[in-house]
Design brief:
The protein is α+β, with helices and mostly antiparallel strands. It has helices spanning 197-201, 304-312, 320-332, 335-349, 354-372, 383-391, 453-458, 464-479; strands spanning 2-6, 26-35, 39-48, 55-57, 63-75, 78-88, 102-109, 113-123, 131-139, 147-148, 152-159, 167-168, 171-175, 180-181, 187-195, 206-215, 221-232, 236-244, 251-260, 266-276, 396-400, 409-417, 420-428, 438-442. The chain folds into 4 domains: 1-142, Sandwich (Immunoglobulin-like), CATH 2.60.40; 144-282, Immunoglobulin-like (Sandwich), CATH 2.60.40.2550; 288-387; 394-479, no CATH class. The relative contact order is 0.08.
Length: 480
């Protein structure tokens, strides 16, 4: 499952990619799969938030929305697939009684290669401009390489009675469009396929599929949210799985799946990001009071102010529960609890040598403090400081501080971020004074995505002509 974008400013908490639109609100996702007989294909999922569309009265006296969808795929600047169609909502008797969301799904064959997908969505009953979106995708499947498909989140499923566009592996799968699970959505259901394992292990050889959740920030697996399934190796091994997330606290997570052989050796792995909001679940960390810090680095910290600073400096690399606990402990000024939490934090990450892990991070914290501290913020509290502590020093930096029509901005480029490649962070200084730069856009998972970042850099009163004339310059710096 790849690249989710939001066609409005709603759900800003999710840090999902956004597209400019006056009224229309929608979510778009895609997932790629492979058929040994028919080749690779992509499924696109477009969810329209019903109340954001314009409904008009039909000759039958009901109300219906109509959208014009244009979807095209380019390879080497040549169009390989193009489709333009009208998407109609269900007819409803009265818009005053609530308007349901509606979903469009397409399934498109694409040979191996890299493609640019472009999407245009226009409300036929509105005068607002069409919404546009473009991104790159890669189709990397063949009949030899062992590889997982993308994940498809599933809203509901049933056994297939008659083959249709929702059908896969004997089930009709209604897609769950989005990677945000609010309170009340207590089951995470997904579908995934593994290809060509019979060529590696031999046909019908035993293997294990294990799926589980891990913290997005720390990649520490959560043993309470894990299942497995035994299968026989084939050319396609499908899995329709589910995990209860009723007890999963609010936070950022990865859904992970592993294929392992009979010797428990890893064969292949895939993961996808999602967010959970579950405010009813309280913090449930290891009992800090039982942690022994005798003769450890934490015991040697004697200054309450320093200890409080160190605790709060963990925020960029902590998960949401740890952030909550660290802030509560720092506010309470319980010196012993702060010491034990600091030690336990690094012991979880490096049980053999937590002090070495802490010393490495502490040196980064002090470097960030020197580089980004302001009169009212510590270095780790600034956007640049947070990003550097979380992801490390960028591999490439583009500074642009004196362009006459743009706010000063800086683009950080990371070649590798865990399971992500070639990710960028755009910071800018809207105040023109001082040294603090604010994150305006990133294409990394879990970060702020703003499709209008170029317009932001040019100022609030930017015209379309200004964005167009400066777009090439921004794009050149962003893509270098």
């Amino acid at each position: 499952m790849k690249k989710l974008f939001l066609l409005s400013s709603i759900l800003a908490f999710l840090f999902l990619p956004r597209l400019q639109a006056k009224e229309l609100q929608a979510l778009f996702q895609h997932a790629t799969f492979f058929s040994p007989t028919e080749g690779a294909f992509i499924e696109t999922y477009l969810k329209i938030f019903g109340p954001s569309a314009e409904y008009v009265k039909t000759p039958k006296g009901t109300f219906q929305a109509s959208l014009e969808i244009t979807l095209l795929f380019k390879k080497d600047e040549k169009i390989t697939d193009f489709r333009k169609y009208n998407l109609l909502s269900n007819e409803i008797p009265d818009t005053a009684k609530g308007v349901p969301n509606f979903i469009d799904m397409q399934r498109i064959s694409l040979p191996k290669g890299s493609y640019q997908v472009e999407l245009f969505v226009k409300d036929n009953n509105s005068t607002s401009e069409p919404v546009e979106h473009a991104e790159m995708i890669a189709m990397e499947y063949d009949n030899q390489v062992v590889k997982f498909s993308d994940f498809q989140f599933v809203e509901s499923y049933k056994a297939t009675q008659s083959e249709n566009i929702l059908s896969k592996s004997g089930f009709d799968l209604v897609p769950y469009v989005g990677d945000f699970y609010p309170a009340g959505n207590d089951v995470l259901t997904f579908y995934i396929e593994l290809y060509n394992l019979d060529k590696k292990l031999g046909s019908q050889q035993d293997f294990l599929l294990r799926y589980y959740l891990e913290s997005f920030e720390t990649t520490i697996s959560l043993s309470d949210f894990a299942k497995f399934q035994r299968q026989k190796a084939g050319s396609v091994n499908p899995l329709l799985g589910s995990l209860s997330i009723a007890g999963l606290p609010s936070g950022n997570y990865n859904l992970v799946i592993e294929a392992r052989d009979r010797n428990n050796q890893m064969i292949e792995l895939n993961k996808t990001f999602f967010q959970r909001s579950n405010p009813g679940i309280q913090i449930n960390l290891t009992d800090i009071s039982s942690v022994d810090i005798t003769s450890t680095f934490a015991e040697r910290i004697s200054s309450p102010d320093s200890l409080q600073f160190y605790l709060l400096s963990l925020v960029p690399v902590a998960n949401m529960l740890e952030i909550q606990f660290a802030r509560n402990a720092a506010s309470s000024k319980d010196f012993s609890q702060m010491q034990k939490f600091l030690y336990n934090f690094w012991k979880i990450r490096n049980e053999a040598n937590p002090e070495a892990e802490w010393n490495r991070y502490k040196s980064m914290v002090m470097m960030v403090e020197d580089a980004y501290k302001t009169k009212i913020k510590h270095g780790f509290e600034t956007d640049m400081g947070r990003v550097m502590l979380k992801y490390g020093v960028p591999d490439d930096v583009v500074d642009s501080k004196h362009e006459p029509n743009s706010y000063p901005y800086t683009i950080w480029h990371y070649y590798h971020l865990s399971d992500q490649n070639n990710k960028k962070f755009v910071f800018y200084n809207p105040h023109l004074v001082g040294t603090e730069y604010f994150l305006v856009h990133s294409d990394a998972k879990g970060e702020i995505y703003n499709a209008d970042w170029q317009a932001v850099l040019l100022g609030r009163n930017t015209t379309r002509e200004q964005v167009a004339s400066w777009g090439d310059r921004f794009d050149q710096n962003f893509r270098r």
